[in-house]
User: Fold Cupin from Methylocystis echinoides.
Amino acid sequence: MTTDEKESLPRAIQAKAAPARQRPSNYPEPFAARIAGREKKALGDFFGLANFGVNLTRLAPGAQSALLHRHSRQDEFVYILEGAPTLVTETGAVALAPGMCAGFPAGGEAHCLVNKTDTDALYLEIGDRTPGDRGAYPADDLEARLDAEGRWRFFHKDGRLY
Amino acid sequence: MTTDEKESLPRAIQAKAAPARQRPSNYPEPFAARIAGREKKALGDFFGLANFGVNLTRLAPGAQSALLHRHSRQDEFVYILEGAPTLVTETGAVALAPGMCAGFPAGGEAHCLVNKTDTDALYLEIGDRTPGDRGAYPADDLEARLDAEGRWRFFHKDGRLY
Assistant:
C-alpha cells in the first residue's frame, strides 16, 4: 500500500458496515461445507494492516468458526460481542458470553467456536501473519501450510495435496 | 512459556475481570503525566500470546490513549466498546462510538484517542510486536526505539536519551 493509498483510507468506520469477505472459506471440500453460516468482515485489511488480521465474524445458529485446529507459529485471540458461542477445545467446552475473551498461543490447545444457540454470535478474532505457520487439525485428515506468498495450502496427513 | 504453563491457562475470561497493568506508562516525564487516567488490561499477555498484544483500555474523562504518534513497522487497531473517545490525527478529529473501529498501518498518520466526554471510554487495542519498530511523535520532542530485548527506549529528537 502506498503512502497516498494509506492517506485516502477512512479514519474510522462502523465495524458492522464493513463489507463481508466474498470467499467464505479457504478449506477444501468436504471441510468447507462444515463452516457454512460463518461470515467474516476483514476490518484490519480494510485499514491496510499487514501484520495481523482483525475480523468481525458472525456465526449463524449451528455454524462454527473453523475446524478444531491449532497454529504452529501464529497466535489467535477472540472477544465476544454478541451471542453465546461455545469454545470447544481438545479437552472440553466452555460457554462464552459478551465481554468474554480467549487467547490461543501458537502450539497451544486445538480450538474452535461453535454456535449451539438459536441466535447469531458475533465476535472479533485477531491473528498475526507470522510466516512459516502450519495449521494442525487433530480431528480431521487435514494439515495446512502457509506458502511463501502467504496463501494456505491444504494437505492430507500423509502429505498428499488436496 | 512451557507447554505445561500453556495448558494451565484458563480457557476464557471476562475481559473486565483481568488485572490492570501495574506500570501505567513507558513514557519518560514530562510525557507520562499526560496519559494519567489511562488503565490497560493486557488480555493477550494473560493468555500467553507473544506475537501481538490485545489490551482492554479505559480512558477516564480527560485522559488520552498515548501521545500523538505513529509506528514505523507495527500496525495498530482499536475497537470501541463503551463511551465516545475522539480519534485525533495530524489532520483532524473524529468522534468515535461503540461498534466503531479504526486501524493505523505502520507509517500512516500519527494518531491518538482523547476522551473529551464526562464518562469513561473503553476499547480494545491491538498492536503487533514486529522488531526494530520506532515511534515518531510529531508534536513532541520524543522518539521511541524498540531495543533488542523488546523494551522501548526514549530519545530527544536530537538523539539524547531521556
User: Anything to note?
Assistant: Chain A has one domain: 25-155. Residues 76 and 127 of chain A are 5 Å apart (CA to CA).
